[in-house]
UniProtKB/TrEMBL annotation:
This is Iron-sulfur cluster co-chaperone protein HscB. The keyword ATP-binding does not apply. The keyword Ion transport does not apply. GO terms for cellular component: mitochondrion. NCBIfam families: hscB. GO terms for biological process: [2Fe-2S] cluster assembly; protein complex oligomerization. Residues 55-127 form the J domain. SMART domains: DnaJ. InterPro entries: DnaJ_domain, HscB, HscB_C_sf, HscB_oligo_C, J_dom_sf. Keywords: Chaperone. Belongs to the HscB family. GO terms for molecular function: ATPase activator activity; protein-folding chaperone binding.
C-alpha cells in the first residue's frame, strides 16, 4: 500500500487522529510531525511504541467520560487489535514484533478496564490522584443489606429466583453508574469513592449470581 493510500484511509476513517504525537521514530529516527496516525511512522511505517503518558481513553481513542459509549469502545478496540495482530508482524523485525505484542496487551488491559463499570470508576479516580483506601468499609446499614442479599443468592434454588435476583442486582449497578457519572461530572471525589465502595459489593454479588447462572445451566 502506498503512503498516499494509507493517509487517505486513515483520513477518511478518522480512527486514530485524536491527538498528535511529536516524537522521533525508534526505527528511522525521523521526527514524526507528519502524522499518519498514532500507530505508525509516516516515514518508514514502523509501528510506534505505546505512549506511556497516554491514559486508557487516549489509547483506545474514546471520549474521556464515565458514560463511555460501549459500542464505540468495542469498535475502537477491534480496530486497534486488527492493526496490532501478530500475523501482521510475522515478517517484520524482532523489535516491531515485541512492540506489537506489548501494545496489544496494553490495549487489552485498557479495554477490560474501561468496559467494566467498577474498574472504569476506580481507574478514573486513580487518574485524579485518588485511590479507594483498602480497609474502607461501607456503613453498617449498607453492610447488613448486602449480607442479606448474599444469603438470598446462596439460598436461591429456582431458576426464577436467580433470574429475579440478577435483574434486581443489575438494576442496582446501573443506578450506581448513573450516580457515579454525576459525581464525576461534579468533581465530587468523596462521593465517587463512596459510590465505588458500594459498587464493589454489588459487583461481587453480580459475580456470585453469574456463577449460579452458569452452574445451573440457565439460558438467558
Ligand atoms: Zn520511522
Amino acid at each position: 500500500m502506498s503512503i498516499g493510500r494509507f493517509v487517505w484511509n486513515f483520513g477518511r476513517q478518522n480512527r486514530f487522529t485524536i491527538h498528535q504525537r511529536y516524537r522521533s521514530c525508534w526505527s528511522c529516527g525521523k521526527n514524526d510531525n507528519n502524522l499518519i496516525s498514532n500507530l505508525f511512522c509516516s516515514h518508514c511505517k514502523a509501528l510506534q511504541k505505546p505512549d506511556k503518558a497516554e491514559n486508557y481513553f487516549c489509547i483506545l481513542g474514546v471520549k474521556e467520560t464515565y458514560d463511555v459509549d460501549e459500542t464505540d469502545l468495542a469498535k475502537k478496540y477491534k480496530d486497534l487489535q486488527k492493526y496490532l495482530h501478530p500475523d501482521k508482524y510475522a515478517n517484520r523485525d524482532q523489535k516491531e514484533q515485541e512492540i506489537s505484542a506489548q501494545y496489544s496487551s496494553i490495549v487489552n488491559d485498557a479495554y477490560k478496564t474501561l468496559l467494566e463499570p467498577l474498574a472504569r470508576g476506580i481507574y478514573m479516580l486513580r487518574l485524579r490522584g485518588k485511590e479507594i483506601p483498602e480497609n474502607t468499609e461501607a456503613d453498617q446499614e449498607f453492610l447488613v443489606k448486602i449480607m442479606e442479599k448474599n444469603e438470598e443468592v446462596e439460598e436461591a434454588s429456582t431458576e426464577e429466583d436467580i433470574i429475579k435476583l440478577n435483574k434486581e442486582n443489575k438494576a442496582m449497578i446501573k443506578d450506581l453508574q448513573k450516580k457515579l457519572s454525576t459525581a464525576f461530572f461534579d468533581g465530587d471525589l468523596k462521593r465517587v469513592t463512596k459510590l465505588l465502595t458500594y459498587m464493589k459489593y454489588y459487583t461481587s454479588i453480580d459475580t456470585q449470581i453469574e456463577t449460579a447462572i452458569r452452574n445451573k445451566g440457565i439460558i438467558r
